[in-house]
Design a protein that fits this description.
Blueprint lengths: L26 H5 L5 H10 L5 H15 L3 H9 L2 H6 L6 H14 L3 H7 L5 H13 L3 H14 L3 H8 L4 H10 L3 H14 L5 H5 L7 H5 L7 H17 L2 H9 L2 H9 L8 H12 L12 H9 L8 H12 L5 H6 L2 H6 L7 H14 L3 H7 L2 H11 L11 H13 L3 H7 L3 H10 L6 H16 L4 H4 L2 H13 L3 H14 L3 H19 L5 H14 L3 H9 L2 H6 L3 H6 L2 H12 L1 H8 L1 E2 L8 E6 L9 H6 L7 E6 L1 H6 L5 H15 L8 H8 L20 H10 L8 H16 L8 H19 L3 E3 L8 H12 L8 E3 L5 E2 L1 E8 L2 E9 L8 E3 L3 H6 L4
Parallel strand pairs: 3-4
Antiparallel strand pairs: 1-5, 2-3, 5-6, 7-8, 8-9
Helix pairs in contact: 2-3, 3-6, 6-9, 8-9, 9-12, 11-12, 12-15, 15-18, 17-18, 17-19, 18-20, 20-23, 23-26, 25-26, 26-29, 29-32, 31-32, 31-33, 32-34, 33-35, 34-38, 38-39, 42-43, 43-45, 45-47
């Protein structure tokens, strides 16, 4: 109650205390005792009396009053009881005991703690500390430790009493105290003192400090003490100081925690024990030392049947030990992985996630990986991957990581997961969710896709347009070199499939070439070149790469890239050799082993644009500026040696002429008569487009018909073919001077262009020609009658052919290269490198 003057009182002052009767049936009467406010105030005032008896009597009265309820304590605090009690320490032992006890009671309230936490009482707090350290009376020491334990809640006060060196006596008391209350408050004081900034670092300097002092009280018969000992250990392990953890390790802290955890009768301590285990797992000194202990092996068996509520906290334990590579063999020997798999029995997302982490760690051990991957485990993981709306792990990244490790490390991993229907889950995730996860998980998903696509059993099963689109998109847009490399490897592994090549031809070559431009990463360039190299065996893809400017891009790489990527040169050579018109345009030479394709052409002039492919030339609406000579075998390929009706008469006359001559007497005059053919019909001309060469197949047919061109010494065959070419291209007049011949040649070419409506002239249409025309026609005919020869372009429009012949030199037969004279001494063979050959080739 509150009086008019604002003072608190238990009963009304007007009420007579001797007339009040105690009604034991009323709870309020049992809790309260009638005190007159004036009597309480008087007693508080009497505490300043010099008479010890009066002070003692006042203290006893106040103590009884204080024990009734908290309201009385608050009233006493407001009455200034704290300062008066602190001033009573100099009186006799009885007063000291009661004063300390009463002060301890007062400090049980927040108001009391607030009151004493002032600078003016610092000396008194130090006095209490000194009494705790040095007083001989047991009751005094007990009350002092209670007071210190309570005031230590204040950081300021803790710093003050910490400086009085309380630790050593406190350790002695904790170790030897018989009184439970005293033991408890000593432990409480220690618990609070270690919050002081310098307390933990100072502990190592105290000789009497030993963690075993605390550990020894864990099994105290009083639950209050045992529980608090565990709480103190929990706090110490949370700091994780090496010297503390080493001490705990010495006394087997983890083993002791395991035993308590497996004891059902100590369930009330399990929560604290689990916290201690987690704290110790975070310290290097105590995280794994216990693996070989009996207690840990018992725990591994216990978890197989323990209550599910323990699985989640204990999963951290198994994650920690399995993440230590040096322990994996030992854990496998102890069959710890079997205990880990038992965690899957609880269909709780957090437990499964934690279990997946431990399983992932153990899969690093090959034999353990094979042992752990069972159909049940695979099915469980697939079920986890199908899980939706997981707040902690919405995209099941932990489970994906486990699946990834199984697939990477187990021989049968991919097969087993495919049997458990992981394909639709994997494809859906890759196509729709992969961009939402971390980079680590993203790379794992891509590698799983890669392993599926390179596996012969699942390649065609995984190939479909959406997947290929995503792979090509990633290759194009990703700035991550690892992702791009994986995509490139995927495409390399499946380029032999028709489905992939059909899809890739749409815009794949352009994407590859654009990616290759300006790249500096040697490894990525190498992977891309390997992919291109593997594609060049397919005509459609090879031509697509050439059309997109592959050779121009390869040419832009500097010497450093070329030196460090040997395959770059191989890709360049393979690409050039694949399309001989381009090879001749780039290098100016066709080797003896290069046989002309069905359509081969030579640009006889300066071409300033990118190289024109035949498909482009056929689609051009305007004629190219320089003259292009075309070797077109397509007529022969399409209709064989069957000739048109209009050429039959010519064939008969030619046959008659050849039959009148013997092979040995076949000369240029005869060849000239053989070569005279009719002019092409207007029906053979595709005006403005590329016309079909109806003459070249006839020449080939004529040559193949007579053994003189197919048999005999190679030199004679070469000479004879040279004379045949000279006869075809010498023109109708042999007696003209060189300028006149050039003029006639130019008129001839111009007439052909006007008649064809195109600058692309089939080589068979020519009736005049010099170095270029003769060398090209010689090569075109020689390839069809098995005369190996090259085609070489020199300077100043000089072209020539080279052949390889075996000649006897210094008594030995050697292979030598000769240049064929098609201009002056027709059929003459000049050894390469000689003055005569160099003059003919204009190499001087």
């Amino acid at each position: 109650m509150e009086s008019k003057d604002g003072k608190s009182t238990s009963v009304d002052e007007k009420q007579k205390p001797d007339t009040t009767k105690l009604d034991k049936s009323k709870l309020s009467d049992l809790k309260e005792k009638s005190y007159v406010t004036r009597q309480v105030e008087t007693s508080v005032t009497l505490l300043d009396s010099p008479e010890n008896d009066i002070v003692l009597e006042a203290l006893l009265f106040i103590s009884k009053y204080a024990d009734i309820n908290n309201n009385n304590l608050i009233y006493l605090i407001k009455s200034g009881i704290v300062s008066k009690l602190l001033n009573s320490f100099t009186k006799n032992i009885c007063i000291l005991r009661i004063s300390l006890r009463l002060l301890s009671v007062v400090l049980s309230t927040d108001d009391g703690l607030y009151e004493i936490d002032q600078d003016k009482y610092d000396d008194k707090i130090l006095e209490i500390s000194n009494m705790y350290i040095g007083h001989k009376d047991g009751f005094v020491k007990e009350y002092c430790v209670e007071i210190l334990a309570k005031v230590a809640s204040s950081c300021r006060v803790t710093t003050i009493i910490f400086n009085t060196d309380l630790f050593n006596p406190m350790f002695d008391n904790i170790k030897s105290a018989k009184n439970v209350n005293s033991l408890y408050h000593n432990m409480l004081l220690f618990y609070k003192l270690i919050d002081a900034p310098a307390a933990l670092s100072a502990l190592a300097e105290y000789s009497k400090f030993d963690t075993n002092i605390i550990i020894a009280h864990m099994n105290h018969k009083e639950k209050k003490v045992g529980n608090f000992a565990l709480e103190t250990i929990e706090k110490l392990t949370k700091y994780g100081l090496p010297f503390l953890q080493e001490s705990f390790k010495k006394f087997g802290i983890m083993e002791k925690m395991f035993k308590i955890l497996m004891d059902e009768q100590k369930e009330y301590q399990h929560s604290t024990v689990i916290n201690i285990i987690h704290n110790c797992l975070n310290s290097e000194e105590t995280s794994t030392y216990f693996v070989e202990s009996i207690e840990f092996l018992e725990l591994c068996q216990w978890v197989k049947n323990c209550h599910p509520r323990y699985l989640l906290p204990l999963s951290e334990l198994f994650i920690k030990i399995t993440n230590t590579p040096d322990l994996q063999q030992m854990l496998f020997d102890l069959s710890v992985e079997e205990s880990i798999l038992y965690f899957f029995r609880l269909k709780h997302k957090d437990v499964i996630n934690q279990t997946c982490r431990a399983v992932s760690n153990m899969t690093a051990h090959k034999y353990c990986c094979e042992h752990m991957l069972t159909p049940v485990v695979a099915e469980t993981l697939v079920e986890v991957l199908e899980r939706q709306n997981d707040e902690e792990d919405p995209y099941n990244q932990i489970a994906w990581k486990t699946v990834f490790h199984f697939i990477r490390r187990s021989v049968n991993g991919l097969t087993l997961f495919m049997e458990k229907k992981i394909k639709p889950v994997l494809l859906d995730f890759f196509l729709n969710k992969a961009h939402l996860v971390t980079e680590e998980t993203y790379l794992m998903i891509i590698e799983i896709i890669f392993r599926c696509l390179v596996h012969p059993q699942y390649q065609e099963e995984f190939i479909h347009k959406e997947l290929l689109q995503e792979v090509l998109k990633l290759f194009k847009e990703s700035e991550n070199t690892v992702v791009t490399t994986f995509c490139c490897e995927i495409m390399t592994s499946i380029n032999h499939l028709n489905a992939f090549r059909t899809f890739f031809l749409q815009n794949g070559p352009l994407i590859i070439i654009n990616k290759l431009k300006n790249l500096k990463d040697v490894n990525l360039i190498t992977e891309i070149l390997y992919f291109i190299f593997s594609c060049l065996i397919y005509e459609d893809i090879a031509m697509a790469f050439l059309h997109q400017g592959l050779l121009q891009v390869l040419k832009t790489f500097d010497e450093y890239i070329s030196y460090n990527i040997p395959i770059l040169k191989k890709v360049n050579n393979l690409a050039i050799n694949y399309y001989l018109p381009l090879k001749f345009y780039k290098t100016g030479k066709l080797e003896i082993t290069d046989k002309l394709p069905n359509k081969f052409y030579v640009i006889n002039g300066i071409w300033c644009d990118t190289f024109p492919f035949i498909e482009i030339l056929e689609m051009m609406k305007v004629t190219p500026y320089p003259t292009i000579y075309l070797v077109d075998y397509s007529y022969e390929v399409r209709k064989g040696v069957t000739l048109e009706a209009e050429s039959q008469e010519t064939l008969k006359s030619t046959t008659s002429l050849l039959s009148k001559s013997t092979d040995s007497n076949l000369n240029s005059t005869t060849l000239s008569r053989i070569s005279l053919t009719q002019s092409p019909s207007v029906f053979d001309i595709k005006y403005g487009k590329i016309s079909t060469d109806i003459f070249l197949p006839r020449y080939i047919y004529h040559l193949k018909k007579y053994d003189v061109f197919l048999q005999g010494p190679m030199e004679d065959r070469i000479r004879l073919l040279a004379e045949y070419v000279d006869t075809l291209l010498c023109g109708p007049k042999d007696d003209l001077s060189l300028p006149q011949k050039i003029h006639e040649y130019q008129l001839h070419i111009q007439c052909l262009k006007e008649k064809l409506g195109n600058n692309i002239i089939p080589i068979g249409f020519l009736r005049m020609g010099f170095h270029c025309e003769r060398a090209l026609l010689f090569k075109a005919l020689a390839d069809k009658i098995c005369i190996p020869c090259s085609l070489v372009k020199g300077s100043l429009k000089i072209y020539w052919n080279e052949v390889a012949l075996f000649k006897e030199v210094d008594g030995e037969e050697r292979l030598q290269i000769y240049v064929i004279d098609l201009m002056y001494e027709i059929g003459n063979l000049m050894l390469v490198g000689t003055k005569q050959a160099n003059k003919y080739c204009n190499l001087n």
